Amino acid sequence: MSKSLKTLWHYLRAFVLIYACLYAGIFIATLLPIAIPGSIIGMLILFVLLALQILPAKWVNPGCFVLIRYMALLFVPIGVGVMQYYDLLMAQFGPIIVSCSVSTLVVFLVVSWSSHLVHGERNVVGEKGTKQ
Q1: pLDDT tens sequence across 123-132
Q2: Looking at residues 9-23, what average pLDDT do you find?
Q3: CA atoms within 13 A on the CB side of 81
Q4: Is pLDDT of 33 > 60?
Q5: Cα(104)–Cα(117) distance, integer angstroms
Q6: pLDDT by residue (tens digit) across 74-115?
Q7: pLDDT category of residue 117 using cuts at 50, 70 and 90
Q8: Model pTM?
Q9: Does the pLDDT value for residue 24 go beyond 90?
Q10: Separation between Cα atoms, residue 8 and residue 124, nearest integer Å
Q11: Cα(14)–Cα(116) distance, integer angstroms
């Protein structure tokens, strides 16, 4: 098989596997009584398949590399769509800033507390009062 056909096969296989997980997630989301986006469930399916090594990472790597490379370009339509609601965003600018600030602070506190809980206090080598 020529090199270009082999490369094409690798990309095709990667995108088919990624889209298969996406559509499986969408199907599962339609069956669930709660509203969870199908794309999130599809990513979880892909994560589980990769974590359990049921699906080799080298099979999806070419497609993931392409999607990550052009990720910024994929956000352009979303940004344009948000600008359709500019008046509403400006009217609610204060509550948006407050909610973003408070939620960021809460996330910082929860992560620092849980990190301290998991890792505890570590003795620093060379610090006074530590045993070596």
Answers
A1: 767 767 655 5
A2: 94
A3: 5
A4: yes
A5: 20
A6: 888 888 888 899 999 999 999 999 999 999 999 999 999 998
A7: confident
A8: 0.63
A9: yes
A10: 53
A11: 39
Task: Pick the closest to residue 8 from 70, 68, 69, 63 (CA basis).
Answer: 63
Residue 91 tokens read as: 């009217």
CA-nearest of 51, 54, 47, 53 to 22 is: 47
Token digits of residue 119: 């890792």
- What residue ranges do the domains of the chain occupy? 1-74, 75-120
- Give residue 87's pLDDT: 92
Cβ pair 7, 25 in contact under 8 A = no
Let me know: does 45 contact 21? Beta carbons within 8 Å.
yes
One-character DSSP codes across the chain = --HHHHHHHHHHHHHHHHHHHHHHHHHHHHHSSS---HHHHHHHHHHHHHHTTSS-HHHHHHHHHHHHHTHHHHTHHHHHHHHTTHHHHHHTHHHHHHHHHHHHHHHHHHHHHHHHHHH---PPTTSTT---
Residues shown for the chain: 132
Which residues neighbour 47 within 8 Å (Cβ) at sequence distance 6 or greater? none
